Amino acid sequence: MTTTDSATVTADAHDSDRAYDVFARACPSRGTLEHVTGRWGALTLGALHEGSFRFNELRRRVDGVSEKMLSQTLQALERDGLVHREAQPTNPPRVDYELTTLGHEVAGRLLALIEFVEGRMDDVLVARERYDTTRGGR
């Protein structure tokens, strides 16, 4: 597909075996993939897999994320239907974030990848050292 027209994406998608093609520039699945696999999206989904969090609790759990980035990440994940935001009408206001059913499914798959990467970090560090030694790198 060479066009970026969203109507064409939908029409072309029905002609193929899959409804969506993340490799196509205008496919809406690409944006969701970016939200899920970006650094803050993946870490936020992984943290929320542990349970419901208030904003500042989540910010502490996802070490290094700024308020602005966490807010943007949560909005994107909520828009994609992966995160549910519940505002309680209390004083001060209380807002809790938790995964939706779809969010739990996505987070489970991400956690499998995260656990795999963590489990293979010794191999990765050896490969980095070898690369840096042979390439005169860092």
Question: What is this structure's SSE topology?
Answer:
Elements: H1 6-15, H2 28-37, H3 39-48, E1 53-54, H4 55-61, H5 67-79, E2 83-88, E3 94-99, H6 101-119, H7 121-135
Antiparallel strand pairs: 1-3, 2-3
Explain what you see.
- With 138 residues, the protein is mainly α.
- The protein contains 7 helices and 3 strands.
- Helix 2 (28-37) crosses helix 3 (39-48) and helix 3 crosses helix 6.
- It is globular.
- The protein has a 3-stranded antiparallel β-sheet.
- 61% of the residues lie in helices and 10% in strands.
State the main characteristics.
single chain; 138 residues; mainly alpha; globular; disordered N terminus; 7 helices
**What is the strand content?**
5-15%
Q: Give the terminus-to-terminus CA distance.
A: 41 Å
Question: What is the number of E strands?
Answer: 3
What ranges have pLDDT less than 50 throughout 5 or more consecutive residues?
1-15
What is the 3D shape? globular
N-to-C series of helices and strands: HHHEHHEEHH
How many strands, what sense, and barrel or not for the largest sheet? 3 strands, antiparallel
- Taking Cα atoms only, what radius of gyration do you get, to the nearest Å? 19 Å
Number of helices: 7
Q: What is the spatial order of strands in the main beta sheet?
A: 1-3-2
Task: Report the helical percentage.
Answer: 55-70%
Mean pLDDT: 89
What is the structural class?
Answer: mainly alpha
